[in-house]
Amino acid sequence: MHDGIHVENAGIPSATICTDRFVPTATGMAKMWGAEDYPTIFTPHPIENLSREALRTRAEELAPVVVRVLTGEG
Question: Is residue 26 within 8 Å of 4, Cβ to Cβ?
């Protein structure tokens, strides 16, 4: 969150992905840095036990969302 917000504030589009377990933390960090509207992408928790194939599938599912965030369309 911290890095994504600061990169975005520097004028560089960023996309932050967190697992849904960190919704309260991400929301709090965004508020703390004055970026309540910072777009954060959430994915189901946990991810550490996913196989390489399952993690790739998850990344492929998130890719269009990342593109929308980076292009300002979502």
Answer: no
